[in-house]
Amino acid sequence: MNIAIIGATGLVGNKISFLLEKINLPVKQFIPIASEKSQGKTCTFQNKNYNVITVNTFIETIVSLQENIIIFFASTKNVSKTYIPIILEKNKNAWIIDNSSEYRLVPHIPLVIPEVNSDKIKSDSKLIANPNCSTAQLVMILHPLHEKYKIKRVVISTYQSVSGAGYRGINQLNNERFVGSGDLNDVFPTKIYMNCIPKCDTLHDNGYTGEELKLERETPKILDDNNIKITATAVRVPVIGGHSESVNIEFENDFDLDDVNNMFNHTPGISVREMACPIDVQNEENVWVSRIRRDFSQCNTLNLWIVADNLMKGAALNAVQIAEYIHFKYNNANNVSLIGMAAAGKSHISSLLSKKISWELKEMDHLIEEKYNTSLSELIETRGNEEFKKIEENITLEISGKNNIISTGGSIVYSEKAMKHLKNNSLIVYLDTPLETILQRIPNPVERGIVLDPGDTLKQLYEKRKILYEKYYDVKIDCRDKNDEIICKEILQYLV
Q1: What is the pTM of this model?
Q2: May I ask the CATH class of domain 2-102?
Q3: Which of 36, 110, 192, 276 is at a distance of 20 to 30 A from 296, taking alpha carbons?
Q4: C-alpha–C-alpha distance, residues 266 and 449, integer Å
Q5: Widest pairwise Cα distance in the chain
Q6: pLDDT of 496
Q7: Which residues are catalytic?
Q8: CATH class assigned to 134-310
């Protein structure tokens, strides 16, 4: 995999390089990119020195080669706005992970924290937005709480370190501390040493700053719930690194503090501490949480304190985790699961794939018939549709190992548990076959063993399931006017 970092000489860019060296991601070519001011500089990666180039040179000489590449944007939103559309137009094989705020709230662009919503990354979502640093650590804590207790409202006060403003923020604090005054490059509106500034980012007409609005708008998008009410106050504090947050959370359902602590202790990416302080989280990958306590002034409400290295989970680490997901999902898949309507061609395509790459074929319908020694239609007739769905779910959950081609049943998408299992262990390929083709191939749904809800037609069933297929797929293959060989070829590009 080729890797490029735009903003390679900055705080976040440097941290991305540091993390890439630590993980098991094969890097074929490393390309550090920065502004013209950095020309002539070198970046060291895996004990080799690489010359820093400009983004224009990168586009002219490398992007147009059409090679697979992951590009980290760790620069300003203006740089992202200017160059991301150009790169995506020139190279259809490029994946871009953008750390700026430019595309975070664009509806069709996924805003991703891998532990929370990696399923939003599809094969056709070539641009992925990295959330704001304060949002990332907040949502890591909110996500398990929301799943269990349903969040109604969140009140946040942030205490954000100067490194959130880059080298200029660190330099201003150090100049004020050791020299006694700042300089013309000061980034904060007033003195930061021995001070707190209740104004992070630009002040908007509604009285809220950019940092506060990022928390309020990004959080519901990541949690996929616009009903959550959020209000924030963001404060810059004279700390070099590490953002802290005081958070008050109101739930729809009551909670038990022991259950909350136990849940955090068993959630990857979270560390429960007696006292979490920003000085202790430097280069820590986990989000730390402490001061977990009930708010006795209001029902079903929790108080807690969250701290994280804003350059790690708040920026570079999250971006690198997205890159890992892309690589192992779309360039190194262990299994393939085909989903789609009955008569979409899953059985035949899976058989062809199995023969082409010598992976084991697991045909769900056949596995069920073998286990229960009867046909699907008889099983549905004797057990009922709901029990059959449970049987289908259990058979799916039994699938393990690597190098499997899995042809699923058409109704497996009704099981969130089964689909999560497939999502975690395979590349999910949706065979998007036109309705008119399905209707031609299935003149009689009953004879095919398809159970329709009372009053439903096959067309209505198709439309209901299509919503779920769209939700769960990693790769969508438009099967219209394509023969089986072409469909297999499109799938194989993600495997070999």
Answers
A1: 0.89
A2: alpha beta
A3: 276
A4: 42
A5: 85
A6: 60
A7: 133, 243
A8: alpha beta
